[in-house]
Every structure is written in structure tokens, then in C-alpha cells.
């Protein structure tokens, strides 16, 4: 499979004019990720897909600065810089597959920049300066994280390096890079104004064409959330004697989602009815408090998730996924990482609750016990005010050292008999 992919990637056309050594690094990274191989192999016949994926991957994992400036076409130069900027987006995802949708969204942003370059009413130098600033900022965080990965995390798999890198990106040492968020939002806003006027339908179509199931957020969803937040703000402020009063204290008190990580292996099949009842109880609690509900089924991996705004979930919707079970043992690392990613998608002012419903005996994951990973997760949970609880279905199988990240543990074996 990998050889088939690499043969197709040898074709010469590329917006970034990738050098041979960059392609070699791409091949090495893909070889370490069977998920990436399957995803590329499945979509390899889509028009332009391989070139897009290669350019994105190399922009993220190679030092493109030495040849990006040699690209003469302004559109391609801006594309390269924006792809570099989205390195941070990659660090906020767990796998290549789950990061692709947001990266494709960034690619299409540059498509609209291409049209803006020929619009005499658009101040393109302003946009290019913003992209240049974002590019410079992201070079710093890229170098910082890569140094840590090279020195301390070389023994981790490709997937695990992404998980730990996303935690590092939220530690105190890189808080100064938060300025990137403001710069990138300016770029998104400027381009979105043009997209709404002329290319709105095309944007929606392209987002759906490249949608990856299980991704916590796409660019389109981000823009919708942004507009909803602005509408909430404008609906609550009032003016008095030319003074604008905004109830920021109310926004800070808003709580984040309930996230339920439900083990769905053959070991938990006997608890199916009781598990659904527990999920419904938590959904009711979310509905009463006006909080969103996210359900993450997991076994040895996470293949998707279900998100319900304000806990609005029905029994019929639960039946859709609660009858599916996987072979093998449960792994906590993918589920925990996915839950933390969902928390990160919400405003950092909000708190959140993560609830594990599991038999109690996960697969032996020694890297889950690594001090580097534990420190990063603990710091994240404390900073984001996230409470993690577990409902253990079989108390005899429970080992506290496997669940070091929990704040509360409840044993449901007696209750569920």
C-alpha cells in the first residue's frame, strides 16, 4: 500500500515545489502511521488529493523557509505561509486523519486569497503582512516543539508524538504564542467576508467534500461558533451615557460540555442497558444546566464522536451506536486525548467534565504512565478546570495506577446487578 502511495507522489506537479528530501520525510512519517496510509489509499483517486496532502504534510513537518521564498507566484507563496501557520492546528489534533479537515479548510482560505489578489478594492498587502506575522510566530512554536520531540520523545510512535505535542502547545512556556490566534482570526475574517459575498456555496461544498468523520471542528463550524458568540455578546450589552456595559462575568461563568467516554468492547456488552441508562441520566443533567453533551465510544481506538447541543439527545439516537461493540481490550489514551481535544475546542474560560464509563481493566499502556505525558495532561486539566470522573463497572478489575488522571471514581457493579 505504501509503495503505491509513494509512486503516485513522485509526480512532479506541486504548489510548493517540494525538494526530494522533503518527500523522503513525508514517506517516513506516513510509514509510521497506518491510519494515514489507509486514509490516503482510500482517497488517492480524488482529483488533486495526493498533491494537497503532500504539500500540507511537508509544510508542517519540514523546514520550508529555505525554498518558500523562491516561489514566484504570490498565491503559492501565501499558500505556503498559511500552511506553515497551521502547524499549531496540527498540534491541536490527535492524528493526521483528524487534522486534515481543518488543514484543508486553511488550503481553501488561500484559494479565496487568490481571488483577492486580483480585486482592486481589497488591500492585499495588509493580508500578506498578517500572513507574514503569523508565519514568523508559528516558526517559533514549531522549532520549540520539534526540539522537545527530538530530544525527549523519539521513542514514541507518530500518533503518540502528536498527542504529546498538542499538550505541550498549551503549557505556560508557549502562552506567548497566543498572539497567533488573533492574527489567524483576522485572516479568516477578511477572507470570510469575500466568501460570503461570492463563494459561499462553493465553500460549503468543498468543506463537505473533504469532511473527515470524527474531527472535532472544521473551519466552517468555527465560523458558525464565532458568529453565535458575537450574537450572544450583542444581545446582552447595553449603553448608558455613551458607555458600553458588557456582562463579561456572565460569559466567564458559562460551563463547557459534559464528555462521556463509553467503552464499547465485548467485556461491556453485558452492561449495555445499564450504560444507556447512565448516559441518559447525564444527558438529562446536561439539558437541565444548558450544557452541551459529547459522547465518545471507544475500544482500542476512537473512530468518531457524537455531539448534542444543550444535552438534546433521544433514546433513538443512543440506540444508533450503543449496539455496536469491538473486539479486543479498551485503550484509555485515544479516548482521553480525544476528550481533551474537544475541551480545547471550547472557549478556554469554560470548565468541563469528562466521564469515563468502563469495565475497569484497560490494555496495558505504559506510555500513558510516562512522566512527560502525565505532567502535560495534569497541567492542562488544572488550567482548563476540567473534572475527570470514572464509573467503573467491575470493581475487582480496577487498578488506580491506570487511572492517575481521575478526580473521582465510582464503582457501579452493585448498582448495575
Architecture overview:
- This protein is of the alpha/beta class and about 425 residues long.
- The protein contains 18 helices and eight strands.
- It folds into two domains: about 1-225, no CATH class; about 250-415, von Willebrand factor, type A domain (Rossmann fold).
- About 55% of the residues lie in helices and about 10% in strands.
- A six-stranded mixed beta sheet has the order 5-4-3-6-7-8, sandwiched between helices. A two-stranded antiparallel sheet has the order 1-2.
- Strand 1 (about 240) and strand 2 form a beta hairpin.
- Helix 2 (about 20-30) crosses helix 4, helix 4 (about 50-60) crosses helix 6 (about 75-85) and helix 6 (about 75-85) packs antiparallel against helix 8.
- The longest helix has about 30 residues, at about 180-210.
- It is globular, with a radius of gyration of 23 Å.
The Cα radius of gyration reads 23 Å
Count of helices? 18
Strand order of the largest sheet: 5-4-3-6-7-8
- What is the end-to-end distance? 48 Å
Strand content: 5-15%
Number of strands: 8
Sketch the major β-sheet.
Answer: 6 strands, mixed
H/E topology pattern: HHHHHHHHHHHHEEHEHEEHHEHEEH
Rounded average pLDDT: 60
Number of domains: 2
Helix percentage range: 55-70%
Globally, the shape reads: globular
Amino acid at each position: 500500500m505504501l509503495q503505491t502511495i509513494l509512486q503516485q507522489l513522485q509526480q512532479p506537479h506541486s504548489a510548493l515545489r517540494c525538494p526530494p528530501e522533503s518527500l523522503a520525510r513525508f514517506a517516513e512519517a506516513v510509514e509510521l502511521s497506518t491510519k494515514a496510509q489507509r486514509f490516503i489509499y482510500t482517497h488517492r483517486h480524488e482529483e488533486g488529493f495526493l498533491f494537497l496532502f503532500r504539500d500540507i504534510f511537508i509544510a508542517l513537518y519540514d523546514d520550508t523557509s529555505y525554498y518558500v521564498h523562491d516561489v514566484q507566484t504570490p498565491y503559492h507563496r501565501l499558500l505556503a505561509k498559511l500552511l506553515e501557520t497551521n502547524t499549531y492546528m496540527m498540534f491541536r489534533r490527535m492524528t493526521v486523519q483528524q487534522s486534515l479537515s481543518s488543514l484543508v479548510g486553511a488550503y481553501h482560505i488561500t484559494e479565496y486569497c487568490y481571488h483577492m489578489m486580483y480585486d482592486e478594492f481589497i488591500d492585499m498587502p495588509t493580508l500578506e503582512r498578517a500572513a507574514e506575522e503569523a508565519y514568523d510566530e508559528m516558526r517559533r512554536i514549531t522549532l520549540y516543539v520539534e526540539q522537545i520531540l527530538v530530544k525527549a520523545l523519539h521513542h514514541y510512535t507518530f500518533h503518540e508524538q502528536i498527542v504529546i505535542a498538542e499538550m505541550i502547545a498549551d503549557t505556560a512556556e508557549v502562552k506567548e504564542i497566543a498572539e497567533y490566534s488573533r492574527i489567524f482570526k483576522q485572516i479568516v475574517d477578511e477572507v470570510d467576508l469575500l466568501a460570503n459575498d461570492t463563494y459561499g456555496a462553493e465553500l460549503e461544498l468543498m468543506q463537505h467534500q473533504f469532511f473527515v468523520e470524527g474531527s472535532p471542528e472544521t473551519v466552517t463550524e468555527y465560523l458558525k461558533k464565532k458568529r453565535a458568540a458575537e450574537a450572544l455578546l450583542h444581545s446582552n450589552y447595553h449603553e448608558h451615557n455613551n458607555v458600553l456595559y458588557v456582562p463579561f462575568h456572565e460569559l466567564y461563568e458559562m460551563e463547557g460540555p459534559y464528555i462521556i467516554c463509553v467503552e464499547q468492547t465485548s467485556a461491556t456488552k453485558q452492561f449495555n442497558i445499564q450504560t444507556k441508562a447512565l448516559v441518559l441520566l447525564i444527558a438529562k443533567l446536561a439539558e437541565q444546566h444548558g450544557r452541551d453533551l459529547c459522547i465518545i465510544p471507544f475500544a482500542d481506538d476512537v473512530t468518531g464522536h457524537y455531539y448534542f447541543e444543550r444535552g438534546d439527545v433521544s433514546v433513538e439516537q443512543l440506540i444508533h451506536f450503543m449496539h455496536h461493540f469491538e473486539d479486543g481490550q479498551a485503550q484509555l489514551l485515544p479516548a482521553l486525548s480525544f476528550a481533551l481535544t474537544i475541551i480545547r475546542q471550547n472557549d478556554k474560560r469554560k470548565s468541563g467534565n469528562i466521564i469515563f464509563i468502563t469495565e475497569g481493566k484497560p490494555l496495558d499502556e505504559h506510555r500513558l504512565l510516562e512522566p512527560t505525558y502525565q505532567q502535560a495532561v495534569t497541567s492542562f486539566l488544572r488550567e482548563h478546570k476540567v473534572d475527570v470522573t470514572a464509573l467503573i463497572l467491575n470493581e475487582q478489575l480496577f487498578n488506580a495506577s491506570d487511572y492517575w488522571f481521575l478526580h473521582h471514581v465510582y464503582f457501579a457493579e452493585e448498582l448495575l446487578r
